[in-house]
Predict the structure.
Amino acid sequence: NAAAGALETGRARDAEMAFRQLTREFPRAFEAHQYLARALVARHATKEAIAELDTSIQLSPREPVLYFDAARALADEREFDRAFRRVDEGRRLEATSFYGPLTEGVVARAAGQTDRAEHAFQAALQMNPTLAAAHYELAAIAESRHDHDRARREYQQALDDDPTLDVARAGLARLVR
């Protein structure tokens, strides 16, 4: 819990050290490897994070979130084909969750596949209409297309759904000027 708290409060190095210790003490605990990977991603050590996520998947191949975490890390490394394969694997395990299309959207956006990203974020919203992250992503896409009316609506909806989403607040402020 202390390591998770360190990660949540932006102390990725502290979290990493604690999770490394946990992986040594409990090498077959997929969660220790998963959270170590999240700490590594937080400090931009994505190649090492991918290896930890691969270990997590080997230890617990039925956990869809591991595939989604791996897809995001692979997208950070610009390994888009592998990232999309991980999304697909996770979605096969958990077809009714919004995490699958949300992750596909993040990977597609990173790959420059804006139409695919937009479609995926809309699919995530069909599953969870108050998903602030998807509204934010749609706003960013609309803003990049100079569709400022839609961008304003989506940023506002993101803030209505999650008032702590500062990136949506900043996007809205940019458009109001």
Observations:
- The chain is about 80% helix and 0% strand.
- The chain has a mean pLDDT of 95.
